[in-house]
Amino acid sequence: AKVSNRGGVLQFDRYSLEQAKGRLELLKNLRAAFDQEQLFLMYQPKIDIQTGNTIGVEALVRWPLPNGDLVSPGVFIPLAEQSGLIIRLGEWILRTALTELRSLNENGWPRLEMGVNLSVAQLQHPALMDMLKAVLSDTGVDPSSVDLEITESIAMRDMERKSQLISEIKALGFKVSVDDFGTGFSSLNYLQKMPVDCLKIDQTFVHAVNEGNGRDIVELIVTLGRKLNMRVIAEGVETEAQANTVSELGCDEVQGYFFAHPMTREQLHDWLATRSH
Ligand code: C2E
Ligand code: CA
Ligand code: CA
Ligand code: CA
Question: EAL domain: from which residue to which, for each copy (predicted)?
Fold first, then answer.
């Protein structure tokens, strides 16, 4: 089903029984794949634009089909959110990413950070704090090396509650980033209230940074981040020209295919071995 959002009202365009069945089937297969431990994480490097050093990686979940194709998390994460599966799946993702971080930290990469996406459905779950504490104590990682990336969304309109939650997460020692900044519902009002460490400029702005007024928009976001004492990351950097411009504009970190694609843990180990740190 095509779901769009107009004025806070969810609209279902041409929502058919066929599509509903398709979604149910997909969810059934997703649950089965998850229970059979077929899902895995890939890791995409985040690079310090001034020094070229690898600061950390972002964990990105993958669902491989029996034929080898990968289902995009853009497709199945929303499904997992709507069905509630995201609670168990999200915990598994965090646990797996932090276990990998611990191993990286102990095997030659002591300062490497791990970015993990946290969905709004997880944020709203009453057991979130207990889950975060349990995963921290089980994996023994330093929470200041973990960056939880949160995308602003209509799903949580209660800003007071959300900013309080983010404060609690930060009190545990985690870093918090606003993902996809500049799209959707991340407003100035939001930034003022949320005690976040980092802004990730949405890819669409990065792709357009050398077109029309694209440069001015990115420059404005960087200035905003600076004023609010936040680090600014440009994600989705695909070309050298984009890398040069976001560097000139003062972004702190970059992420994107121009530097490195998401990699399996084995590929990441090989890749890191060739890099300065
Ligand atoms: P995101 O958090 O904004 O992640 C960045 C997406 O951009 C990733 O897609 C990444 O593979 C892709 N990407 C990285 N560099 C480039 C580039 O240079 N050009 C282009 N065109 N794309 C680039 P992916 O892995 O398909 O994930 C899509 C979205 O699914 C993520 O967007 C995130 O919102 C969600 N997602 C992925 N993994 C997880 C997860 O473990 N938990 C949760 N809750 N959501 C996840
Ligand atoms: Ca992200
Ligand atoms: Ca993003
Ligand atoms: Ca996203």
Answer: 23-276
Quick check: 201 and 232 in contact, CB under 8 A? yes
Amino acid 190: pLDDT: 72
Instruction: Look up the pTM and report it.
Output: 0.92
Positions in the chain whose pLDDT score sits under 50: 1-2
pLDDT of residue 163: 87
**Is the distance from the beta carbon of residue 73 to the nearest atom of ligand 1 less than 6 Å?**
yes
Residue 121 phi/psi, 5-degree rounding, is -60, -35
Which ligand 1 atom lies nearest to the CA of residue 81?
A: 44
In this predicted structure, what is the pLDDT of residue 202? 94
The confidence score (pLDDT) of residue 5 equals 53
Q: Which of 60, 79, 261 to probe ligand 1 with, by most ligand atoms within 8 A of CB?
A: 60
Query: What is the spatial distance between Cα 218 and Cα 172, in angstroms, rounded to a whole number?
Result: 32
Mutational test site, ligand 1, from 96, 117, 151, 263, max ligand atoms within 8 Å of CB? 117
Give the count of beta carbons closer than 10 Å to the beta carbon of residue 72: 12
